[in-house]
Amino acid sequence: MLMRLATIAAALRLFARHRNSEHEQALVRMAMASLICLLVVWQSALAHASNVMLALIGFFLCLSALILIDIRRRPQPVRTRRVIAILNDAGGITCGMLFAGELGMPIYLFYLWITFGNGFRFGKPYLYGTLLASLAGLSVVLWQVDFWQQHRAAGLGLWCGLALLGLYFSTLVTRLTGALQREEAANQAKRSFISSVSHEMRTPLNAIIGMTDLLHGTRLDREQEAMLGSLDTAAQLMLALVEDVLDFSKIEAGKLVIEDTAFDPHRLAGGIIDLFRYQAAARGLQLRLDIDPALPHGLCGDPHHLRQVLVNLMSNAIKFTEQGHVVLRIALLADAGERVRVRFDIEDTGIGIAPAAQARIFDSFTQADASTTRRYGGTGLGTTISRQLVELMGGQLGLRSSVGAGSTFWFELALRPHAEAATVGIVAPPRRPPSATAYALLVADDNATNRTVLRMMLERAGHQCTLAEDGEQVLDLLEAHRFDAVILDMNMPHMNGLEATRVIRFTTSPGRYLPLIMLSADVSAETREECRLAGIDQFLPKPVRIDDLLDALDRLIVRPGAPPPRARVVPQPALSLDGVLDTTALAGLEAIGRDALFVDGLVAGFIADTQVLMAQIAVAIGNRQVGALRDLLHALKGSAMSIGAQALCTTCTQLEECSDADLRRESRTRHAQLQQAVEQLLDALTRYRRTRSHSRA
């Protein structure tokens, strides 16, 4: 018995984790079917129940359970399943009213329940479908049951009431849907605005932080060094505020991604102390770092968002502390082998927080009181973002505070140990002398200030720079000159960084690999993955640190006589790249042409033809020209077969076999499926060419 209860409890928890509108409707259906069953059994006293009645009740209950199971197995919307569920609901209610007789009158309410429920959850088409099924079922009841034949006026009134209420509710659904769409459009506009403004704010910050990096490498007296430190701190805090706003928007949209990468917590903490050193000194505060020496140097987690949380909390601690100290403590609580539990405390001797204000301190845009905002400023967003980020990382943020005695914000995280500490993104290593090897670099950015900053950074390190304003200039310069690496900005006019990357990867001469580095203010996981698929070797977020950029160049550029870097070693291709590209077909073409340039030209021609065909396919889909679409799909399949594009051929064949009605009804979905197959093929071709280049090098 206990085992059964445990199984039921586990199932309920499972459904709770995967809850959506269809799950809710399925659970309502099970409850409704059970109530109807009890009412019918009670009315028929079970002893007089007919076999037909019991069989029908059992059928509807079993079908309801099967629908619930199928929703668990396939949580995505399935139109056929919803139609079956509607018929099951209406049929079950109708049978209940048929067998319950006079006592079946309350069951009538279930017709309203399923009509409103399906309409509210799934939209007007399902509302109308449920309403028609309910009206048909109620008509059968009014025609067959003696009680309703004796009360025709009441029955007709209920029938008309069901019809009128259903139609009236459809107008409410229309209004609600319109309101939701307008709200979603407003939210999308807000997110786009925030993203655009944040990107524009990063552009001048890139110049400010870049110039401070350059100034740090010059001779400065103590006063100038202090002023430069304050400028650097202000720029970093401004960058942190921009990231807060971006992350707040992503969290609202449910699109924030928590990463799992290696990092060194000791270096991370040291970098944060360095960031606030000048600000604390200017306020006469003692700034300390107390870190547990037993804490491993290598951990896996999200160093970017962890740093953001610590910067927010340290910034608040210094802002609200006029005398005394601010301490960052990091302690190892437990080491369980696969996971280590780490506690972070930010302690200050500042103004403290009243108990009444502590309950709302984590609310958005909220501070302790209005006087705090007037005196110290701030958005009231830092603690909110910090708490949300900590919870997304699997921890919990809390505080202890007394008015006049200071505050301590703390949180704990479970992190995975890592053999080696991460080497990127936390603290810059000691300033290096100019490089012993001068690289010829091509730098592309549409912003003149950014180009100047990058040129000064790289020339200070001993490298030679050629500047470009967009992707088209990059391609022209690559035809005329030879470069060791290309540094691209993501967003440029005419041809952006990704478009230029794809062209470069398909036009670079065989036997020579050109390292590509992408700079972007958009640091989302989607953007990083898009860059990787396009063929980017290193992604660096803006504002870029000179040491990160120089590290990437040293790692990617192979010096004469030196072995290639380990990260660039790629095995010989198998017969198939992920089932997308049959490499034996390309190898055969190389043998026929007796020259790799023959295949390069063939691939370049295929890409050009595919782009034209995809544009024509988009037009055909937009104009709902099914005949033209089939011809274009056939042409694309023939072109794909010539280079061994297996997956694209299969996709084209599947689309050709669809009926005209399916192509019209699912045109957008089919087009997205085709576009995905083309992008996968381009990625596979990039990897194939890269591998062949290494094998000939």
What do these coordinates show?
The protein is of the alpha/beta class and 697 residues long. It has four domains: 21-150; 258-417, Heat Shock Protein 90 (2-Layer Sandwich); 440-558, 3-Layer(aba) Sandwich (Rossmann fold), CATH 3.40.50.2300; 576-696, HPT domain (Four Helix Bundle (Hemerythrin (Met), subunit A)). The protein is 63% helix and 11% strand. It is built from 25 helices and 14 strands. The strands form three sheets. Strands 1, 2, 3, 4, 5, 6 and 7 form a seven-stranded mixed beta sheet that branches. The chain starts with a helix and ends with a helix. 33% of the residues are buried. Mean pLDDT is 75; it is low at 1-19, 370-379, 421-433 and 560-576.
Give me some keywords for this one:
alpha/beta; 5-stranded parallel beta sheet; flat; 11% strand; 4 domains; Rossmann fold; 697 residues
User: Under the CATH scheme, which class of the largest domain?
Assistant: Alpha Beta
Shape: flat
Sequence stretches where pLDDT stays below 50 over 5 or more residues: 1-19, 370-379, 421-433, 560-576
CATH topology name of the largest domain, in short, is: Heat Shock Protein 90
Main sheet summary: 7 strands, mixed
The total number of structural domains is: 4
| CATH homologous group name of the largest domain | Histidine kinase-like ATPase, C-terminal domain
Strand content bin: 5-15%
Radius of gyration: 33 Å
> Portion of residues in helices?
55-70%
Mean pLDDT: 75
**Total helical segments:** 25
End-to-end separation in angstroms reads 69 Å
Number of strands: 14
Structural class: alpha/beta
> What's the CATH architecture of the largest domain?
2-Layer Sandwich
